[in-house]
Specification:
The complex is a heterodimer of chains A (about 325) and B (about 280).
Chain A: E1 3-7, H1 11-18, E2 23-29, E3 35-39, E4 65-72, E5 75-78, E6 86-91, H2 93-106, H3 113-120, E7 122-127, E8 148-153, E9 156-161, H4 164-172, E10 177-179, H5 207-215, H6 221-224, E11 232-238, E12 244-250, E13 260-261, E14 264-265, H7 270-283, H8 299-303, H9 310-317
Parallel strand pairs in A: 2-6, 6-7, 7-8
Antiparallel strand pairs in A: 1-9, 1-10, 2-3, 4-5, 4-12, 8-9, 11-12, 13-14
Helix pairs in contact in A: 5-7
Chain B: E1 12-21, E2 26-33, H1 38-41, E3 49-54, E4 58-62, E5 74-79, H2 83-88, E6 96-103, E7 117-122, H3 126-138, E8 146-152, H4 161-170, E9 173-179, E10 193-194, H5 197-202, E11 212-216, H6 219-232, E12 239-242, E13 258-259, E14 262-263, E15 270-272, H7 273-276
Parallel strand pairs in B: 7-8, 7-11, 8-9, 9-10, 11-12
Antiparallel strand pairs in B: 1-2, 1-6, 2-5, 3-4, 3-6, 12-15, 13-14
The chains are: A alpha+beta (about 325), B alpha/beta (about 280).
Chain lengths: ~325, ~280
């Protein structure tokens, strides 16, 4: 793998090169202190010391609400997906893993055209990070699920080229890059890896389930902030002059309406909905059954207003049944 | 700007040919999809579903009640329960609709070949089983004896009763009808028992070891019938149930219809009882 070095002092110029490849977005902090990925109109807005953004970068691939179809002149017609070229700079490995998972969901069998258009227009540039108290990822220091990855090192960043597009950017920025001095990269030990979990754990008599269900207020924040939660609802609205518009928007499995059918609800209680989310996150649904989609970013734990931490359950789940309280 | 090119979201155009009221809130809609939809529909297996679009209201998953494709039309038996089905019930013949599909896994018609088949329908659950029944009767040389047990709440809610009686008179079909209760109503020319479907099954003798069973109805019925059927000696591998979930996309993505780790829209809606027994919240 080709490695180059970018001195911190040349970062501003490097961002200028990135703008040639699309609208530049990166981590910023709003006036009220919320970290968010946003357009870097002014490079000084970039905040590379961010811990995690509140909303993950999934917002660039699956907008909160998007138009799928228009009904007019007697037929449904596909709406155009507006997907300008965009460079997303400064993503942590967990968020890159999140996007890699969404790729499996939306670009697998019967690829989603809206997602595919946005994904093709997106350049991803990762950056190494320092875990804080909420992090529990099992990433080593770097990941390959991006076009370029910058590893913080001494006076600047070691730059790994991971795709053809990343190679084009490195060529364009050739004057800014020097040869990397270090040959070997130190890796970080995974502090709390998350292996695929036993699906039966969700029906365990573990008293933590009841404790979670009593506290949970079904606010859905964990799902909104999750980089791999993607479930959606489809709604159609009639137009005043005839016709109609079909929209797709984020849904939330913590909401009581999620499991409704005519005359019944298959997940009417909070306990059932928590178990549903656990099952999807840690055990996976067909065709990704058996795959954990939790990337350990720590957002769900950070935003939960009642301090629900599914990891407690996983930890106790590892104990033999006899040891459970 | 990229023009989305794949058609996974776009329904085929379809025209409402007409409808026939079956009960106060349920009607049979005959729909003619555009010619380009017929190739996909020709691969339809009873128990699969289509996503029916009512422009301006939205999309609902419906299992066809007949064998679509032959004459270029299909029949959809729809109860008026929400805003999409509510609007559908007001539309005149000639209205434009939309159609995607068929989606999902239907009844295992190949596996059932040569075997007696018992169909158990509760309420609106007769719709997908009518499709399976049509297939079994059309290809009757390939199957053993066909029995339909159909339970409804009361006589006026029993759908297709004249048609079923006529089929039983002409074809190799054993038909048993039952209603939960019978208020005073002229019985007409059809006879039926009074009682619940599981009770009807109790007094019925059939080839439990050899039969395949297809069940469609409300979840409460599944819980009773599953025990009853297994008690009679039918293996769970040969009992098939059609589950209902809120399928939004039909292609395994929106995640509303998970049954355990399976998705109702792609792995189902027809599941083997042996499969569902591993999933505590399935029924």
């Amino acid at each position: 793998m080709e490695k180059a070095f970018l001195n911190q002092a040349r970062l501003g110029e490097f961002l200028g090169i990135l703008r040639l490849f699309g609208e530049l977005h990166g981590p910023t902090v709003s006036h009220d202190g919320v970290a968010a990925f946003a357009a870097l109109g002014d490079a000084s807005a970039l905040r590379l010391d961010y811990g995690r953004t509140q909303i993950p970068p999934k917002k660039y691939l699956i907008p909160f609400r998007e138009e799928l179809l228009q009904y007019r002149d007697g037929s449904y017609q596909e709406s155009q997906t507006n997907a300008p070229d965009m460079v997303l700079f400064g993503l942590h490995p967990c968020d890159l893993d999140g996007i890699a998972y969404l790729d499996l969901v939306f670009l697998g069998d019967r690829p989603d055209p809206c997602y595919a258009a946005r994904r093709a227009a997106l350049t991803l540039i990762g950056i190494s990070c320092e875990p804080d108290d909420f992090c529990f990822c099992n990433d080593s220091l770097e990941t390959t699920a991006c076009d370029l990855f910058l590893t913080s090192r001494g006076e600047g960043f070691e730059v790994a080229v991971l795709s053809a597009r990343g190679g084009s950017i490195a060529s364009a920025a050739k004057a800014l890059l020097t040869r990397s001095q270090s040959a070997l990269l130190p890796t970080r030990d995974a502090s709390c890896p998350i292996p695929p979990q036993d699906p039966q754990l969700r029906f365990s008599g573990n008293p933590l389930w009841d404790s979670f269900a009593e506290r949970c207020v079904s606010c859905g924040a964990c799902s909104v902030c999750c980089p791999t939660c993607y479930c959606f609802d489809v709604r159609e609205y009639p137009g005043l002059g005839g016709g109609g518009t079909r929209l797709r928007e984020w849904d939330n499995c913590l909401f009581v309406t999620h499991g409704e059918v005519a005359g019944a609800n298959f997940r009417g209680t909070r306990l059932e909905r928590l178990r549903y989310r656990f099952l999807h996150k840690y055990c996976g649904f067909s065709p990704l059954e058996g795959m954990t989609s939790c990337v350990g970013c720590g957002r769900c734990k950070k935003v939960c207003p009642v301090q629900i931490d599914l990891r407690e359950l996983i930890e106790t789940g590892r104990q033999p049944a006899a040891e459970l309280p | 700007m990229n023009r989305a090119s794949s058609g996974i979201h776009t329904p085929f155009a379809a025209t409402l040919i007409g409808s026939q009221a079956l009960s106060a809130d349920t009607a049979l809609f005959r729909v003619a999809p555009e010619a380009s939809a017929l190739e996909a529909l020709s691969r339809f297996v009873p128990g699969q579903f289509v996503q029916l679009s009512v422009p301006g209201a939205g999309e609902v998953p419906i299992s066809p009640a007949d064998l679509p494709g032959g004459d270029g039309t299909l029949e959809l038996c729809v109860r008026r329960v929400g805003h999409v089905t509510g609007l559908l019930h007001t539309l005149p013949a000639g209205s434009e609709l939309g159609l995607r599909g068929p989606f999902g896994t239907g009844f295992p018609i190949r596996e059932m070949a040569g075997r007696p088949v018992l169909l158990l329908a509760g309420g609106l659950g007769i719709a997908p089983l009518r499709s399976l029944l049509f297939h079994l009767l059309r290809e009757s040389r390939d199957f053993g004896e066909v029995t339909l047990m159909y339970g409804a709440r009361e006589p006026k809610l029993m759908l297709f009763r004249e048609e079923l009686a006529a089929l039983a008179a002409r074809r190799r079909l054993r038909l048993y009808l039952t209603v939960d209760f019978a208020p005073q109503e002229p019985a007409g020319n059809f006879s039926c028992a009074v009682g619940l479907l599981p009770d009807l099954l109790k007094g019925f003798s059939f080839d439990a070891q050899g039969s395949y069973v297809a069940v469609c109805g409300p979840p409460a019925l599944y819980r009773c019938l599953a025990g009853e059927l297994e008690g009679a000696g039918v293996e769970a591998e040969r009992i098939f149930l059609s589950l209902e979930r809120r399928m939004r996309c039909g292609i395994g993505r929106c995640c509303h219809c998970a049954v355990g780790q399976k998705l109702c829209c792609t792995d189902g809606p027809v599941f083997r009882l042996s499969e569902l027994k591993q999933i505590p919240e399935a029924l």
